[in-house]
């Protein structure tokens, strides 16, 4: 979180759009009175505090942990620019007594915004408008804004998005929040020790295997044992490891958004069928979470 982010939060706290000209006015305090300097310092500290709170929420509540891809650790925050308006919203919630209903509203805003890709451009105006919209909703519960995304659009965008994109990171976030179990051992995954796995190996299926919905998280030892096995063969290993208890294995698969329909595609090594089925499963789960709010 850099100084510009801090100044943007300060601007929003003063009901200013966080554009460059407003940020320059904020820091133009060289010949100001001690009172103005003190107010600036207090506002700076407030902004830093709530940026930390917002970042902590994104990581711990929204699942934006670091994961390992090969030898690299990658960040999973879909839009770092969303942390600025989120900080102000969390400040507004604390002012109003930390009500659960208000956190639910922010959660709906966060996920709807991530999967609508609204912070791809025009982020300063977007941040200002979003803070105003949410403040109004906090004050007037009956005036719920239109936040729910078009799920057909979300699905179509995700099917063609890169795994390093905001949509890819949002998918990983949701996967982490779903507490995925290792496909082979059935045990909870340790994020610091997991690998991103191509369920259909890229060595056999080429670039088509890089689709978001062909990726998941598994234990690094499992990944080393799996290598480039065909899904049907690896599935047999997983079933045996689950004591040949298909219901037990299905519960593990469901923790990865792998539905019964997707499972059937795995059994016959049908990559396209698997991607479509897993996409459908994920979108239905996402829809339930957002519409439920």
Structural class: mainly alpha
What general outline do the C-alpha atoms trace?
elongated
Order of helices and strands: HHHEEHHHHHEHEHHHHH
Low-confidence stretches: none
Count of DSSP-assigned helices: 14
Overall mean pLDDT stands at: 94
What about the largest sheet?
A: 2 strands, antiparallel
- What topology, given as strand order, has the largest sheet? 1-2
Q: Helix proportion of residues, in percent?
A: 55-70%
Description of the structure:
This protein has 293 residues and is mostly helical. Helices cover 60% and strands 5% of the residues. It has 14 helices and 4 strands. The strands form 2 sheets. The protein has a two-stranded antiparallel sheet. Helix 13 packs antiparallel against helix 14. The chain is elongated.
Secondary structure layout:
Layout: H1 3-13, H2 20-27, H3 34-60, E1 67-69, E2 72-74, H4 83-95, H5 100-116, H6 123-139, H7 151-160, H8 166-177, E3 194-198, H9 202-205, E4 215-219, H10 220-226, H11 231-241, H12 246-254, H13 260-267, H14 271-292
Antiparallel strand pairs: 1-2, 3-4
Helix pairs in contact: 1-2, 1-3, 1-4, 3-4, 4-5, 4-6, 7-14, 13-14
What is shown here, in short?
The protein is mainly alpha-helical and about 290 residues long.
Provide keyphrases for this structure.
293 residues, 4 strands, 14 helices, two-stranded antiparallel sheet, mainly alpha
